[in-house]
Amino acid sequence: MSGELLRAEGIGKRFGGFVALEGITVSFAAGQLTSIIGPNGAGKSTFFNILSGALTPTSGKLHFRGRELNGLPQHRFVHQGISRSYQITNIFPDLSVHENVRVAAQALTVSYDIWRNRARLAELHARADAALEAVGLLSKRNELAKFLSHGQQRALEIAIALVSEPELLLLDEPTAGMGPEETKDMVALLERLADRRTVLLVEHKMKMVLGLSKRVVVLHHGRLLADGAPDEIRSNPEVRRVYLGQ
Ligand code: ADP
Ligand code: MG
């Protein structure tokens, strides 16, 4: 599918008297890897939380495939085809790798008949394994999640986000806390993931983002500072001032 997948129109968010986001209007095309960058506190995670339904905007509208998303609870965002990972590692350490993903798969099913229906249970297992395969963790499926390396745990979180087979995958700083080797592996994984679905990435590693993305959206103090191809962003004087000059 091509064309516009997600559109945010005049999105604003206040926390009490503090304006975290103001007037963000931006749309994302299907089948593209777009990054949202900006210095710490720019509003990236807040914007992501709004795009994934975890936070309700104070103003503005969200459309996904032309359908308005405002006011829907987060699980409805998932059913519409939007799924996300978090900036902070968010897994069950004492469950196995496979169980972590299967719990997520089970949470998506509304019916309890999986316990009596072997075919449904087998399907859940297969779905969990497919998500693990997609992130390169199938060989680790029976290990406890707490024994994975940091990089593998981040990949596991992505598998958890993939189990709903999202059309749009939102990833908040998937390379947070990683060294150069793990970052390289994660970049390769992101490229593979973006072959098959639309990916929106929040990052503050500017260099990595410019090499990886087709398009970069820059937030600064809760506002949209720039939006364009990596080359345009690299040479944008305002971006250089607030970001590269740090
Ligand atoms: P980023 O992800 O770009 O680093 P955030 O979206 O996390 O930035 O935060 C943007 C601004 O909003 C920051 O100044 C932060 O302190 C503030 N903020 C974020 N979440 C909350 C909250 N729940 N309550 C109050 N202020 C918040
Ligand atoms: Mg953040």
TrEMBL record:
InterPro entries: AAA+_ATPase, ABC_AA/LPS_Transport, ABC_transporter-like_ATP-bd, ABC_transporter-like_CS, BCA_ABC_TP_C, P-loop_NTPase. Pfam families: ABC_tran (PF00005), BCA_ABC_TP_C (PF12399). Residues 6-246 form the ABC transporter domain. Keywords: ATP-binding, Nucleotide-binding, Transport. It comes from the Bacteria. One of its GO terms (cellular component) is plasma membrane. GO terms for molecular function: ATP binding; ATP hydrolysis activity. Involved in beta-(1-->2)glucan export. Transmembrane domains (TMD) form a pore in the inner membrane and the ATP-binding domain (NBD) is responsible for energy generation. Belongs to the ABC transporter superfamily. This is Amino acid/amide ABC transporter ATP-binding protein 1 (HAAT family). The lineage of its organism: Bacteria, Pseudomonadati, Pseudomonadota, Alphaproteobacteria, Hyphomicrobiales.
